[in-house]
TrEMBL record:
Gene3D superfamilies xrefs: alpha/beta hydrolase
Record's protein name: AB hydrolase-1 domain-containing protein
Superkingdom per UniProt: Bacteria
Organism: Acinetobacter tjernbergiae DSM 14971 = CIP 107465
Pfam families (alphabetical): Abhydrolase_6
Length: 263
């Protein structure tokens, strides 16, 4: 992977990895992760596509946004990043919070998105689920990051899952606390902001999750896909929140079919 940076407005830096040639595929990770969190997809798709995996603001080497920035600020940042790449419309995929950003970009700037994919996304959480994630966002303001709880929630005990868990743990340990706190709050409060815009999305839309992800449920995936004009929902059995790492073959096959969808 080639490490690159783009200069954005207000002297902000966007850092990303790029690999391969061909039609552009832009990948946006979730809260607390880094651009490298798409490593199975970068390796697989860079054989035929120009894969660009970006550090979300306040993560990896990308400049953070102002404290308390809402989800729309992350969407606007991503729009600026894609525009600065000067590649025209891209295939855009997001995981977790990255899926909320992907939805926002696809709904507000359809000219920039050829196809969109949402992995382990959230859609109109229940009051109980929203309260739980908002409480976690508030706890971060105390300066403490709970790493073990999400690892236990996201990964099983198999060797493959534990290898992925070790990588995820290292990213969570390296994250900028301020950037992480701002992003998590935007994620916690962002599930409804673009939820009613799914009907506007006309490009091919893949919505994927695992049956064992209690926060990004199969029901959410089906609802999102049903709202889009050309949506497809895929639910992978016995998989949790980090499905792109724990079931890379199934995810890559689903994304390959999505990328081959005519537009």
């Amino acid at each position: 992977m080639i490490s690159k940076t783009l200069q954005l407005s207000n002297n902000r830096i966007a850092h990303y990895f790029e690999q391969g040639e061909g039609e552009p595929l832009v990948l946006i990770h979730g809260v607390g992760m880094q651009a490298a969190a798409w490593y199975p997809q970068i390796e697989y798709f860079s054989k035929d596509y120009r894969v660009i995996s970006v550090d979300m603001p306040g993560h990896g080497q990308s400049t953070k946004l102002t404290d308390g920035a809402p989800l729309k600020a992350f969407v606007d940042w991503t729009i600026e990043f894609i525009t600065a790449l000067n590649l025209g419309a891209v295939n855009l995929a997001g995981h977790s919070m990255g899926s909320l950003i992907t939805t926002g970009v696809s709904a507000t700037r359809p000219d920039l998105v050829k196809r969109m994919a949402v992995l382990n996304g959230v859609y109109k959480r229940t009051t109980q689920a929203r309260d739980a994630v908002v409480n976690r966002a508030e706890e971060l303001k105390t300066g403490h990051i709970d790493i073990e709880t999400p690892l236990q929630r996201w990964f099983g005990e198999s060797e493959a899952e534990q290898i992925a868990a070790a990588r995820v743990k290292s990213w969570l340990e390296d994250v900028d606390l301020s950037g992480y706190t701002t992003a998590y709050a935007a994620f916690a409060h962002g599930d409804q902001i673009y939820a009613d815009d799914w009907a506007k999305i006309q490009c091919p839309a893949l919505v994927l999750t695992g049956t064992d992800d209690p926060n990004s449920t199969a029901e959410m995936a089906i609802q999102m896909a049903s709202q889009a004009q050309h949506g497809t929902a895929i639910v992978i059995e016995n998989e949790r929140h980090m499905v792109n790492l724990t079931a890379p073959d199934e995810v890559n096959n689903a994304m390959q079919a999505w990328l081959e969808t005519k537009v």
